[in-house]
Amino acid sequence: MTDKLRVGDYMTGKVITVSPDDTVMDVIKLTRETGHDGFPVTRDGKVEGYISSLDMLLCESDELIKNVMSKNLIVAHPSMEINEVARVIFRLGVSKLPVVDDSGVLVGIITNSDVIRSQIERADPQKVWKLKKTLETLHNISITVTRGEVDINDLKPTQSKVFADELEGRIYELKKGLAEPIIVIRKPSNVLILADGHHRVVAAKRIGVKKIDAYILELSKEIPLGMERSARDAGLKTLDDIEILDYAKHPLIEITERLMMRESKGSLEEIEKKSVESG
Question: Is pTM, for the whole model, over 0.90?
Answer without folding.
Answer: no
